[in-house]
Amino acid sequence: MSESSAKRNAVIELLRISPVADELARMFSEAGHRLYLVGGSVRDAMLGRLSDEAGDLDFTTDARPEQVLRLVRGWADAIWETGVEFGTVALTRRGTQMEITTFRADRYDRIGRHPEVVFGDSISDDLLRRDFTVNAMAIDLVSKSFVDPHGGLRALSTGVLETPAAPDESFADDPLRMLRAARFTAQLGFTAQQRVVDAMTEMAGQIDRISAERVQAELSKLMTGEHPRRGVELMVDTGIAEYVLPEVPGMRLAIDEHHQHKDVYQHSLTVLDQAVELERKHEPVSEPDLVLRLAALLHDIGKPATRKFEPGGGVSFHHHEVVGARMARKRLRKLRYSKEIISDVSQLVFLHLRFHGYGKGEWTDSAVRRYVTDAGELLPRLHKLVRADCTTRNKRKAAALQRSYDDLEERIARIRAEEDLAKVRPDLDGNEIIELLGIEPGPMVGKAWKHLKDVRLDRGPLDRDEAIAELYRWAADQGLR
């Protein structure tokens, strides 16, 4: 397909999916203003990645914010004016979310990342200030023409990530763009232009100007992209990771205990790749799983701190899962992740090594129950993480590990069929414990409840007489009888 045909098809496709854009353009044209569709929807239309619903739409215009507000009042279903001082009016129409921003020609103090808002007068100047050429394309909705002054379409066709302005100027204005470069590498599979890589390497420390919340948002988009490994590698190679996830480049210091990989860092990237592949093989195909992918990347971050060289040339990393879980929790907390994500990722890191004690099926049913209970709702993710962590190049050993895990999953299914492992509870509840022991509600009741739950996990269900006898034995040991 020729370049002109691609542009024409993108315009047609966007207007077909988003008829509200055409309506909006007529309103602006009749008022003597220009209106352009910009941003990710234009890029994705060129890539053929648009769904049947275009989703959020971004526009830019020569109309000033107060003029935009006058035009859309009565037409929009809802309007938000919170961004008006920055030139942006947000609105919805028939379920389509839109933002209309006046041409910008901002100036930055290069200390923070908040610009002195200056409105511009031309689309070319507005596009020049955007982050990458693939995002610096526009559709003139009045003339139905394609605007591409910086070669964005060419960059799309060659898979190159380039900045419209000089990258050092662009990144000095907004350092978050360096992390966005890694994110687009992960999302689109692009390769950053060498001058972009050089600028990122030289200016990596300026990421510290960006709030943790903004960094976290970009990192999450990177990790849930099609090619998260590529984004991580770009962060590490340029030094950005030293300010975002320093534990990841830190893994290059350690040698994998199996001596099968260049280092723990490369092993972790392989585990990340394999976790993504397991997501894709899942039926139905699951959405990108941020928790699983973070756990895959971070599961061995405790190894450098626990590395010990053994006699004879061996290397050990005893309790690296305990140290790694603590490190993961600390890092994710600094990145302002939610308590749920922090808890889930750190628990997966803590549990990822548990399976290696399974051997060829030596675990008792009690150990299987504990594995399931400790994982809780994370068990499906733990299954994927453990399988992804089997990265040995020895095909016979790899097959044996997968067979062992198949056997473990079969045993879990069998025990679940016999017992409801998701609802494992002691055979006596708190009220019965209070009545049988004649004690007041308090910590001792909780201790008795926990003891009976441990017995339940070890021995399976008890009948009532057995449970009462066990409670009395425990109470006698505690001096309660």
From TrEMBL:
By its UniProt entry, which Gene3D superfamilies does this protein fall under?
Beta Polymerase, domain 2, cca-adding enzyme, domain 2
What cofactor is this protein dependent on? Answer: Mg(2+)
The coiled-coil regions, if any, are 398-425
**EC id:** 2.7.7.72
Q: Which SMART domains match?
A: HDc
- Cross-referenced SUPFAM superfamilies: Nucleotidyltransferase, Poly A polymerase C-terminal region-like
GO terms of molecular function: CCA tRNA nucleotidyltransferase activity; metal ion binding; nucleotide binding; tRNA binding
**HD domain residues:** 264-385
Q: Which keywords label this protein?
A: Coiled coil, Magnesium, Metal-binding, Nucleotide-binding, Nucleotidyltransferase, Transferase, tRNA processing
Question: What are the BP-aspect GO terms?
Answer: tRNA processing
Superkingdom, according to UniProt?
Bacteria
Protein name as it appears in the record: CCA tRNA nucleotidyltransferase
